[in-house]
Amino acid sequence: MGSLLLAVIYLIFISLGLPDSLLGSGWPKMQIDFGVPSSYAGYVSMTISFMTIISALLSPWLIKRFHTKWIVIVSILMTILGLWGFSVSKQYLMLFLIAVPYGLGAGAIDASVNHYVANHYSSSAMNFLHCFYGVGAVISPYIMALALSKARWNEGYRWTAYVQVGILSVCILSLPLWKKTEEASDEEEIRNSAGIKETLKVPGVILTLIAFYAYCSGEATCFLWTPSYFAGTKEGLSDELIASFGSLIFGGLMFGRLISGFVSNKLGDRLLIRIGIAVELLGIILVFIPGAHYMVAAIGFVIIGTGMGPVYPAIQHMTPINFGKRYSAAAIGLQMASAYVGSTFMPMVFGIMQESIGIAIMPVYLLIFAVLSISLLETAYRKADANMEK
């Protein structure tokens, strides 16, 4: 039964990834219909992210009062509402209203399911879980592309909502599985779980939050600015080739998490993080090489993504071990909020910086966050170990 439920949880994370790529892939046509500048996509994206941060911070309270399965059901319903709302929007301002359920649903699923998997499954399962998130994020641009070739962007959102309805149906049918995989002590542990204020006092928690913020800042900067890096530093590349470089980091992340899923139980989360960031640094060095052929930098970005791959899942999976199950729900919710803050604002900060300094500064920017994240994590885990030994 545990394996069957895990398959459902992987499907849930596919559903989590599905909405995340739609705005970017559909915006070139959406902005024409709404009659707004291209940059206005950022305001909608930030609204969604802000709501996601709120739901991540609310997740400890939700987990304490409602079972994970019901948080999942309601959250998927909210994303369906958001997707459907986008599909029927006639004016740009409507998107901000619809962004509320769109973002709230995503954050609640992310934090609650990460908490559940961290407490019930292995590190391998956690890595595969985040790999399946990538599957969802890869699928949705193809849905949008099909919609744009056959109909309009509205249908891309509507068709994705239909897929979400199918996933929701599977989740409803799987409700009996959740109870069968739990121990009798689980509900008591959740009822006695700590809140955010108390969790922030645990040694190492705040350092982990800053480290998570740093990691996600680098990751999101790569997602947004990798094509621009090639456009600004390499000459003679076609627009199509430059656009394709947007998949380099994402492909590396998928590959890194897939490999980590097979080796994480043997290596352990902490060693996996160290290896991952070491690989990331190797990729940054390749990107640093001045005057090199664009393929060297392209390989470098794939290696950066591969190194980044295991970091996010490993940090989440270690939370109950490092800080105790009593604090795991609040700690994971805080980590999710830190991640979203970093991924929301730091790519924008880099955008401002590169306008005055130049896009070639990108590997330096990534290096700073990579070194910061591993330094803070090592310090945080030493503090956590000392606290657990008391």
Please describe what this structure looks like.
- Helix 6 (123-150) packs antiparallel against helix 7 and helix 14 runs antiparallel to helix 15 (294-308).
- With 390 residues, the protein is mainly α.
- Helices cover 85% and strands 0% of the residues.
- The protein has helices spanning 2-17, 22-34, 41-65, 68-87, 94-120, 123-150, 153-173, 175-180, 186-191, 196-199, 205-233, 239-244, 248-267, 269-288, 294-308, 311-323, 325-357, 362-389.
- The chain folds into two domains: 2-178, MFS general substrate transporter like domains (Growth Hormone, Chain: A, Up-down Bundle), CATH 1.20.1250; 199-389, MFS general substrate transporter like domains (Growth Hormone, Chain: A, Up-down Bundle).
Summary tags:
single chain; 390 residues; mainly alpha; Growth Hormone, Chain: A; 2 domains; 18 helices
